[in-house]
Design brief:
CEMIP/CEMIP2; mainly beta; globular; 5 helices; hyalurononglucosaminidase activity; about 950 residues
Length: about 950
């Protein structure tokens, strides 16, 4: 596990306490030796320059022959020639450097770390030639200075293309082409790790799947950037905070205090609301029957006289308000609120007012409508816009009317089209006006993720941004009942953009499943590449749903890509934004030792971060975010119920797949081998699972037969630390199952690579069942608002510790299989964890959420998992043996519609429970109404309570 102390390409993190235990690497597939050009030979140092003047006297100890003196003169002459050559070369280099410096734009300073400062580069301006297949060959080193359009671009045999940059970031270069192919010894550079690209660079990949403009490239197809053996791809945009967390909740209204709406019929008299001008909070609400009560009129007068200057007041008449409205009250309304109409109000007139206390007429908005009859429908509407102390604009509206014979009055407090987000990290000044951001859902529905554009905000702190528009859903920004539910906020924009040009309408065979074009661009990197590093690049409209192996970023059978593979600078991707993708986010295929960090995968079809063949090992996923992972078509595990039964071309004869057992597994992180590291990632919304560890019994796909035994079930788990999983329709985390590794046949008609129930995780040293077990440690997992289960864990030995589960259908379900021959003697343990049945995060009744009902400690309306009658449980025992210790339960309250329990058992389990289950040192908050849901099968289960 690489670590460093500085700003290198590896994550800096504190290893969890358990990381010191033995973690054998298990089986590692064979390395592929990278092919790269030998480093240039260093020139020998020049000889010293002889000093001018007479030669020093020779000591006359012996006489030199004429031949010796001749050789000496020849050596002196050669030294003089070498001196002149050295001086000439130095002078020439000086003038070349001087010319280079003079040729740079004003304000640029020569920097050897900047690829576009290379003096060997020639200016290149190919222009717009959509029919030209450009080839950059050996000896051609080009600096692309302006935008261009080409049919294709091939860089080969040592050729090089570098995007020009400028110190002030004023360059704006767009290259449009059907594909870019980088072959042996060739390179494409946009910026560098120590000289990041400052301007705007765009690569637009053109073409349709049925295009006849140029033939498909073997292994790459169409619409791609391809890196073959010996190729170099270095893309490095400006460093920016990739994603962070909210630190203050943003309600659906967009206001910190939440919005306010009120409407009522026959609310006679003057209805009043007092609003805090700093926070938009409604401080006081009351109705004063000034039609029938002089005392109410006097009470209203005293209230108005007592309010501090600047407070916002809204008034609205319901039915009538003037019969007992005293003159002193009218005077108070006129003087304190600036009303012009109050002295002349008539019987059953509709009247509404919004004003500031002591603001005068200039701050008063009011309206009156005459009452002609009960069906006049004249609405008196008063509205004014204010601003909170944080600069959030909000409107206060009051209205009064007669409609269909009913007097109606009401109020509304709502944010205007600008809302401020408070964030955990300092994002200024790298997040800029015009950038796109996305807020993750903090509810059961992943479809509550929302996109916004950033607005200028001169007064915002370094941890604040202003967005255009207002949220439709609540996005939590706090730790709720002990569980961190802060919404992730991701930056989608980068100054290097690669995107696929899309058709405006759907075409081809995918139209039976999708109503839009799904043939985007893709980047594919083959083994033996020379150097590939991608950082702070935006990838939009990438991936091809109709083709396998065509993903936004795809490391294809690259072997070891770190020091073990001979790479002096290990391969990494850092800070990528992959969004609105048509097939996955990033695929690691038969590749080991890759570092993926700070990368966002948003709104994609199929598994997002995808390990493909079940032999990928030693890869590290550090601080990545995936959200809105939708179903796809490529694999059975990608498909939802409809796609599962519709796609039957690879099953045997007329077999109909079973969605619940073969499909419905699309996951944000699909981890096909346990020997990989997941640290500080967030899986914030998938159609099925956030993180799924699945176990291949043999290598699959293109790797099939190359590595016959993966031993994945037996291989110890890599580091799993500080990960988050929420808003997933099935589960936050799953450790279970495998895939079918044989083709469909009469004996087994299921499709190849469909989900299979045969695998059970049982880690042992060196992936050898004859050696001692190695416990898999899940440390600091946060899992909330998952419809089915927060975490489903099957196998052993597995330890979960320091974790939090809240608002899941079932918080954590263990199924160890330990009492069966698969791994006799194994067990599972949960320690020092928190389980919350229903928290104060009540959610928003919208998006994918289907169920809305009473629940929680406060018995208020809230979103519900699964259905209204599903018995919510905190910890579920499936069989065992399981140990649950030193953990806390809170917020488990039954309702008239359903039972709720802190600890329970699977209702569908027909197997017996082991007598070795143990529950000890548990703490139950007073909000837990049912501690243990027992049955006749658990009479021998040990239980003690603190």
């Amino acid at each position: 596990m690489p670590t460093s102390d500085g700003p290198s390409h590896f994550p800096v993190f504190v290893a969890p306490l358990h990381a010191g235990h033995q973690r054998p690497a298990g089986y590692v597939p064979g390395r592929v030796a990278p092919v790269r050009l030998p480093p240039p030979a260093k020139a020998p140092p020049p000889p010293p320059v002889k000093p001018h003047g007479p030669a020093p006297l020779q000591r006359a100890t012996f006489s030199l022959s004429e031949e010796s003196r001749s050789r000496e003169r020849a050596r002196d002459l050669q030294q003089r020639r070498n001196t002149f050559i050295c001086v000439g070369a130095s002078t020439g280099a000086f003038f070349i450097t001087l010319l280079l410096v003079l040729s740079l734009r004003s304000g640029d300073v020569f920097d050897e770390n900047c690829p576009d400062h290379n003096p060997s580069l020639s200016s290149w301006n190919p222009g717009h030639q959509p029919q030209r297949a450009a080839v950059v060959q050996r000896g051609q080193l080009f600096k692309l200075e302006t935008s261009a359009t080409l049919l294709s671009l091939t860089i080969q045999s040592g050729g090089q293309v570098v995007f020009a940059d400028s110190a002030d970031g004023s360059k704006n270069i767009t290259l449009r082409t059907h594909h870019i192919l980088i072959q042996d010894g060739a390179a494409l550079h946009i910026g560098a790790p120590k000289c990041r690209y400052r301007s705007s660079a765009t690569i637009a990949l053109m073409g349709r799947s049925d295009s006849a403009a140029l033939p498909e490239t073997p292994g790459l197809g169409r619409k791609f950037i391809g890196v073959l053996g010996g190729g170099t791809l270095e893309l490095h945009g400006t460093e920016r905070v990739s994603w962070t967390l909210l630190t203050r909740s943003v309600p659906a209204s967009g206001l910190p205090t939440g919005g306010y709406a009120f409407q009522r019929n026959f609310s006679r008299g003057i209805n009043l609301r007092v609003i805090d001008q700093d926070t938009a909070a409604v401080l006081f609400s009351e109705r004063y029957d000034t039609h029938d009560s002089r005392n109410d009129s006097r009470t209203l007068t005293r209230l108005l006289r007592s309010l501090p200057a600047g407070r916002i007041v809204a008034l609205a008449v319901g039915d009538s308000a003037v019969k007992s409205l005293l003159d002193e009250t009218k005077t108070a309304i006129a003087e304190r609120l600036g009303s012009s109409f109050v002295y002349n109000l008539k019987y059953r007139q509709a009247w509404a007012l919004v004003s500031e206390v002591q603001g005068g007429n200039a701050t008063c908005s009011e309206d009156v409508r005459e009452h002609e009859n009960h069906d006049t429908r004249g609405r008196a509407l008063a509205s004014r816009t204010f601003s909170t102390v944080e600069g959030v604009a909000f409107s206060v509206t009051a209205y009064s009317e007669w409609k269909n014979g009913f007097p109606i009055s009401g109020f509304q407090v709502d944010a205007e089209d600008q809302v401020v987000l408070n964030l955990q990290d300092e994002v200024q000044p790298t997040w800029r006006p015009g950038d796109q951001v996305v807020l993750a859902s903090t509810d059961f529905s992943m479809y509550q993720a929302e996109e916004f554009t950033l607005l200028p905000c001169l007064w915002c702190s370094s941890r604040q941004v202003r967005i255009q528009g207002k949220p439709q859903f609540l996005h939590v920004g706090e730790v709720v009942d002990g569980v961190d539910m802060r919404a992730e906020v991701a930056l989608l924009s980068r100054n290097i953009l690669i995107y696929g040009e899309m058709e405006t309408s759907c075409y081809g065979k995918m139209c039976r499943f999708y109503g839009h074009d799904t043939f985007g661009g893709h980047i594919k990197i083959f083994g033996n590449f020379s150097s590939v590093h991608l950082s702070h690049v935006e990838l939009r409209n990438m991936g091809q749903q109709s083709q396998t192996g065509r993903y936004p970023v795809h490391f294809h059978m690259c072997g070891d890509v770190d020091q073990r593979g001979g790479y002096r600078e290990p391969t990494y991707v850092d800070g990528l934004s992959i969004h609105h993708s048509f097939s996955r986010c990033l695929t690691v295929h038969a590749t080991n030792g890759l570092l993926v960090k700070n990368t966002v995968g948003y709104d994609t079809l199929g598994h997002c971060f995808f390990l493909e063949d079940g032999i990928e090992q030693r890869n590290t996923f550090y601080h990545n975010l995936g959200l809105l992972t939708r179903p796809g078509t490529l694999l059975p595990t990608d498909r939802n119920e409809s796609l599962c039964t519709s796609i039957r071309d690879k099953v045997y004869e007329g077999y109909t797949p079973s969605p619940s057992t073969e499909c419905k597994a699309v996951s944000t992180f699909w981890i096909a081998h346990p020997n990989n590291n997941l640290i500080s990632n967030a899986a914030a919304g998938s159609q099925d699972a956030g993180i799924w560890f699945v176990f291949h019994s043999s290598s699959t796909g293109d790797s099939h037969g190359l590595v016959p035994e993966t031993r994945a079930e037996l291989t110890p788990l890599g580091v799993f630390y500080n990960n988050r999983a929420h808003s997933n329709f099935k589960a936050g985390l799953i450790i279970d199952k495998g895939v079918k590794t044989t083709n469909a046949s009469a004996a087994d008609p299921r499709e190849y690579l469909c989900l299979d129930n045969s695998a059970r995780f049982r880690p042992h040293q060196e992936a050898d069942s004859r050696l001692p077990r190695v416990a898999a440690v899940i440390d600091a997992l946060v899992s909330y608002k998952n419809n089915d289960v927060g975490a489903w864990i099957r196998g052993g030995d597995i330890i979960i510790q320091n974790s939090g589960f809240a608002d899941n259908g079932v918080g954590l379900s263990f199924a160890s299989d330990g009492s069966y021959p698969s791994d006799e003697g194994s067990s599972q343990e949960v320690a020092q964890s928190l389980f919350v049945g229903e928290s104060r995060n009540r959610g928003t009744n919208a998006g994918q959420n289907k169920y809305w009902g009473l629940g929680g400690v406060d018995a208020k309306l809230r979103t519900l998992p699964r259905n209204r009658t599903f018995p919510i449980r905190g910890f579920q025992i499936y069989d065992g043996p399981v140990r649950l210790t030193r953990s806390t339960f809170r917020g488990f309250v039954s309702t008239p519609e359903r039972f709720t329990s802190a600890v329970g058992f699977s209702l569908k389990n027909t197997w017996q429970l082991t007598p070795r289950n143990n529950l000890s040192q548990l703490s139950f908050h007073p909000s837990v109404s049912r501690h243990i849901e027992t049955s006749h099968r658990d009479t021998v289960t040990s239980y003690s309570r603190t």
